[in-house]
Amino acid sequence: MTAPSDLTHVAPQAQRFLVLFDFDETIINESSDDAVLYALPGQQLPDWLKNSYREGHYNEHMQRVLAYMAEQGVSKNSIHSAVENIPPTPGLVNLLQYLQSHQQDFELAVVSDANMYFIETWLERAGVRHLFRKIFTNPASFDASGQLVLLPFHSHSCSRCPDNMCKQVILREYLAGRQKERGGAPFQRVFYIGDGANDICPSLALGPRDTAFPRRDFPMHRLLVEMQQSQAAKFKANVVPWASGGDIVDCLKKVMEER
User: Is the CB of residue 102 less than 8 Å from the CB of residue 177?
Assistant: First the structure.
């Protein structure tokens, strides 16, 4: 497995809660893959490239997109600026400020099917990179020719997820590894904040004390509603839809009051 980005975390090891964030349309208010297309001369892809996408193989598609952008002369600086200029989701800054003020209680990580270059560029620009203990995402870096080269994060056997990333595998491995590092102490609660269909799989691994935060009226929310109505799958976690980071802060404050 590709080693995730890891910076030394300033908070102690005793945080009680783990908060996992998706990136596209969860931390930022649009898809980073779409936002970088503004750096193209025509600001859109040719039809032949759009139509090359195959279901479950999005990572391969983005590899072709980034190669095309390099062929069109899109520079590293242009991509960097396009990523930095993506707006945060409503209330996201307030949510991160709240979590920063309670670093002794919350450990943060990103689990995203975007890529390391986009995520670290945005988080550093926003001044919040230091808040996240880990970033699990697809590796990406510029080669000598100036092309941003994207790779898959890992391989897995989950039939629900795209071939390059199963977020449930990541979540389960991270929880097991952190429990061992913490001397056998698990997190008291896990909070998962997302928006997309690929955020359902990790949410299925959450327990009854945990909470899934689907962005209201986005695919994750709609799919969870369908699951709850059909009762086809036993979903154990609490579900709290959010439209703003303030909705999540309100929920976390109630949890903190339960000390």
Answer: no
Residue 149 has phi, psi (to 5 degrees) of: -100, 125
pTM, two decimal places? 0.91
DSSP states of the chain as a string? -PPPEE---SS-TT--EEEEE--TTTTBSS-HHHHGGGGSTTSS--HHHHTT--TT-HHHHHHHHHHHHHHTT--HHHHHHHHHTPPBPTTHHHHHHHHHHTTTTEEEEEEEEEEHHHHHHHHHHHT-GGGEEEEEEE-EEE-TTS-EEE--S-----TTS-TT--HHHHHHHHHHHHHHHTTTPPPSEEEEEE-SGGGHHHHTT--TT-EEEEBTTSHHHHHHHHHHHHT-S---SEE--BSSHHHHHHHHHHHHHT-
Q: Which residue has the tokens 């999005």?
A: 58
What are the pLDDT digits (tens) for 155-168? Answer: 777 888 888 899 99
Q: Which of 6, 24, 113, 195 is catalytic?
A: 24
Residue 143 is among the residues annotated as catalytic for this protein: no
CA distance 165 to 133: 19
Selection from 34, 33, 4, 8 nearest residue 20 by Cα: 4
Enter the tokens of residue 13: 């090891």
Return the higher-pLDDT residue of 178 and 56.
178
Residue of 6, 22, 143, 199 marked active site: 22
Q: Is 24 a catalytic residue?
A: yes
* φ, ψ (nearest 5 deg) of residue 114: -80, -130
